[in-house]
Amino acid sequence: MTTPETQGEGGEAPGLVPPSPEDARILRDGFLSSGYEEESLVREYGTAEPPFTGDLRFPRMLECARAPGPLGILARWFLLGLPVSGGEAGKVLRPGVVERLVRCGMLAAEGEELRPRVAVGAVGRTLVVSDPSPACAAEFREDQVRGLNPSARRLLDLTIRRPVASTLDLGTGCGVQAFLAAGHSERVTATDVNPRATTLAALGARLNGIENMECLTGDRFEPVRGRRFSLILSNPPFILSPVRRNTFSDNGRELDSFCRDLVREIPAHLEEGGFAQMILEWVSVGGEDWRDRIRPWFEGSGCDVWALKGYTREAWQYTVTRMLEASQAGTRAPGVMYDEWMDYYRSRNVTAVHGGALVLRRRSGRNWTWFEELEADVTGPCGEAILRRFRTRDLLESLPSDEALLDLVLRPAGELRIEQDLVCREGEWTRGALRLRQEAGLRRTVGTEPDVVRFLTELDGRTSLGDLARATAERFGAAPEEVAAEMARVARTLLERGFLEASREPPGRSP
Asked: Mind listing the pLDDT tens digit for each residue in 59-74?
């Protein structure tokens, strides 16, 4: 594993060094044996991440952390950012843990007390090292390295976790994307323009026993110029700020041009068949459609593109949201920030800000682009669902007409639920609309009808759509061509929205 230099001026983290493999093993065992992992932390403290300024959970978390035992000691240090007596800690933590935390720079001595120099969060049993949150830090640093935030969690859920030869985590920050990608990649490269980030990511990698990961410091693709990867992940500094104040969130570029240029650079670094997944924000100028803004970014890319819009906010709404985050970080007077941001947007005729994700796949031949709006936030791993959607889109793009759908074998995709409300008005109960809902992943919901429900229940993954249409027409005495056309129309809609998956042959038959 390649690690960056940790000494010097600027954004480095002097005194923080990855522990030796043996020291890392002892530290890791010390954390995990104490229950310092996501499930236990959430159960005891309500979160597995350090709190922010003004977090009303802090007093309760502090009360819980005063309980005797090793988890309370570690939580006071690395969740709440509080000093603990070295003598007290040494009595309850495993032998060798305290001195090794000091040796690698995670703790610093202040008289008889030991004060944390980093925060440690958890994703499952993976430990994530970052700077202390502003609620715990003495000052807010411009080069602060954030721990797990909502956009990072979203990318973790969206990531396609098939085995690959090489993964690039572009703008790694605390390194969490790279840590989890190391489990399904032969090698992982984590890059960041902030040397403090690559230092902490290298420390976290060693702490988690990850040896197939390298950390490189540099801007965008510069550290990996000329290299290609099977998977590229990026949660870049996408916030649309008038100025650059924080390395982890602001890029200092005009509007969404940073993300635009990043998207245009990605294809040159993807292997054939490789995927890139990115969280981003972009604007609408003069009321333009959200699709029209980003459509030119993909032209001539040599990639199939699935663009997912998760939210849209008017310029003032977006500004208020970012103001709230800034106040949580203890920075900027709200009135000054609001005027600064709104002047910036008005002068550029920005009417809305959109947020979402892009999935690109490098592929020779005629490429497709698909735009979709998410109805709910993603929940849980979606990688397999995304791969199914790409296979389905490939299949639909290859068909000459909807009539060709009749040759396909269809089955429900993932776990689906059919819901219907009973509504009482003036003492009379009536049936409400039917809804078809995905239970996990992208969680799409569509209104449906009894005939569609019946259609879904007959899709057994063995019978072609054409055979099903003919049997249905015969059963109801309907015109076969009309039944086939309607079934093909419904099938295309449900395939496009991810409720069905298709194959050209039923299971067990040779292609």
From this structure: 888 888 888 899 999 9
CATH class of the domain comprising 147-393: alpha beta
**Structure tokens that stand for 268 in this block:** 């040159």
What is the rounded CA–CA span in Å between residue 278 and residue 154? 10
Asked if domains 147-393 and 399-503 share a fold, the reply is no
What residue type is assigned to position 250 of the chain? D
The per-residue b/e assignment along 175-195, b for 16 or more CB within 10 angstroms, e otherwise, is bbbbbbbbebbebbbbbbbbb
Domain 399-503, second-level architecture? Orthogonal Bundle (1.10)
With residues binned 3-state (H G I as helix, E B as strand, rest as coil), the percentages for the chain, rounded to 5, are 40, 25, 35
Give yes or no for a contact between 248 and 237, defined as CB atoms under 8 angstroms apart: yes
| Residues near 496 by beta carbon (within 8 Å), at least 6 away in sequence | 392, 393, 396
Given a contact cutoff of 8 angstroms between Cβ atoms, the answer to whether 114 and 156 are in contact is: no
To the nearest 10 degrees (0 to 180), the angle between helices 70-78 and 58-65 is: 140
Domains of the chain by residue range: 147-393, 399-503
pTM: predicted TM-score of the whole model, two decimal places: 0.91
